[in-house]
């Protein structure tokens, strides 16, 4: 029992430190985060306390309001922190790969299955919706990368649907912050065994990553491909 208490005590400072760090990072991009969180907490608590006085139970409603105020503040903080994180990642090479890595269970992602010397990249995700090719970079250049990769997928796994998305803020593109939601909304047409079989066939095919290791997440700006490396078809 003592060991469990000690472990819990050691974990609490870590969680508090993580929350503080997240708050500082969010505040860099969202200067009003403190005022917003304070307003949400005070208004939520105030509403329930007022209702408590009206119905003659200020203590009970006050306690409930306090708990719900903490909950509402935590939800708002989480959403604004996520929005700030996406804002800082927006436009960085490899940002879409970082989002795909955290899309959730049931998806297998492979970053940089196709790339050109201008750092336009196509990433691949396989799930029950089929194969999703996610491109980031110049919209005009990535279209040729996507077309070549879709042609390759249709040759190898012709019975699996292939979707393509371009990350960006222009017409017909998907914003980085909406990428995960967009992919999760795709219709599920494959079973678990079919997803496994598709991944096996793609692994057997191999891809760019097997020949040129790349760091996960956003890639450093100015990174150059080695001479003689793979070129976009």
Automatic annotation (TrEMBL):
The chain crosses the membrane at residues 33-53, 59-78. Residues 210-233 are annotated as: Disordered. Keywords: Membrane, Transmembrane, Transmembrane helix. Residues 219-233 have a biased composition (Low complexity). It comes from the Bacteria. InterPro entries: DUF4191. The keyword Transmembrane helix applies. This is DUF4191 domain-containing protein.
